[in-house]
Design brief:
The protein has 62 residues and is α+β, with helices and mostly antiparallel strands. The chain has one domain. It is 19% helix and 29% strand. The protein has 1 helix and 4 strands. Strands 1-2-3-4 form a 4-stranded antiparallel sheet. The longest helix has 12 residues. It is globular and about 30 Å long. The chain starts with 9 loop residues before the first strand and ends with a helix. The model has no long low-confidence stretch (mean pLDDT 83).
Protein backbone atom coordinates (compact mmCIF):
# COMPACT_ATOMS: atom_id res chain seq x y z
CA UNK A 1 0.00 0.00 0.00
CA UNK A 2 1.39 3.42 -0.89
CA UNK A 3 1.49 6.12 1.79
CA UNK A 4 -1.40 8.55 1.29
CA UNK A 5 -0.21 12.13 1.57
CA UNK A 6 -3.37 13.22 3.38
CA UNK A 7 -2.45 11.48 6.64
CA UNK A 8 -0.71 13.30 9.46
CA UNK A 9 2.40 11.22 10.11
CA UNK A 10 4.28 11.34 13.43
CA UNK A 11 7.35 9.74 14.95
CA UNK A 12 7.52 8.15 18.35
CA UNK A 13 8.66 10.34 21.22
CA UNK A 14 11.16 7.53 21.91
CA UNK A 15 12.89 8.09 18.56
CA UNK A 16 16.46 9.25 18.78
CA UNK A 17 17.63 12.31 16.94
CA UNK A 18 19.98 10.38 14.66
CA UNK A 19 17.25 9.47 12.15
CA UNK A 20 18.72 6.04 11.48
CA UNK A 21 16.11 3.74 13.02
CA UNK A 22 12.61 5.11 13.12
CA UNK A 23 9.10 4.40 12.01
CA UNK A 24 6.28 6.86 11.49
CA UNK A 25 2.62 6.29 12.25
CA UNK A 26 -0.62 7.85 11.08
CA UNK A 27 -3.93 7.24 12.79
CA UNK A 28 -7.50 7.30 11.53
CA UNK A 29 -10.70 6.35 13.30
CA UNK A 30 -10.49 2.74 12.10
CA UNK A 31 -6.83 2.09 11.28
CA UNK A 32 -3.22 2.80 12.08
CA UNK A 33 -0.59 3.04 9.36
CA UNK A 34 3.11 2.41 9.88
CA UNK A 35 6.00 3.18 7.53
CA UNK A 36 9.77 3.59 7.49
CA UNK A 37 10.52 7.26 8.11
CA UNK A 38 13.49 7.11 5.74
CA UNK A 39 11.35 5.86 2.85
CA UNK A 40 8.17 7.94 2.85
CA UNK A 41 7.10 6.73 -0.59
CA UNK A 42 7.72 3.10 0.33
CA UNK A 43 5.34 0.44 1.62
CA UNK A 44 2.90 1.07 4.46
CA UNK A 45 1.54 -1.48 6.92
CA UNK A 46 -2.14 -0.96 7.74
CA UNK A 47 -3.49 -2.29 11.03
CA UNK A 48 -7.09 -2.36 12.20
CA UNK A 49 -7.80 -0.55 15.45
CA UNK A 50 -7.96 -3.82 17.43
CA UNK A 51 -4.60 -5.01 16.10
CA UNK A 52 -3.04 -1.60 16.81
CA UNK A 53 -4.36 -1.64 20.39
CA UNK A 54 -3.02 -5.17 20.93
CA UNK A 55 0.39 -4.08 19.61
CA UNK A 56 0.49 -1.05 21.93
CA UNK A 57 -0.64 -3.09 24.93
CA UNK A 58 2.16 -5.60 24.29
CA UNK A 59 4.79 -2.96 23.62
CA UNK A 60 3.94 -0.91 26.69
CA UNK A 61 3.89 -3.77 29.21
CA UNK A 62 6.69 -3.51 31.79
Amino acid sequence: MAAPSTYQWFKSSYSGGSGTECVECALTVDEAFVRDSKCEAGPVVALGSGAWRAFLDGALEP
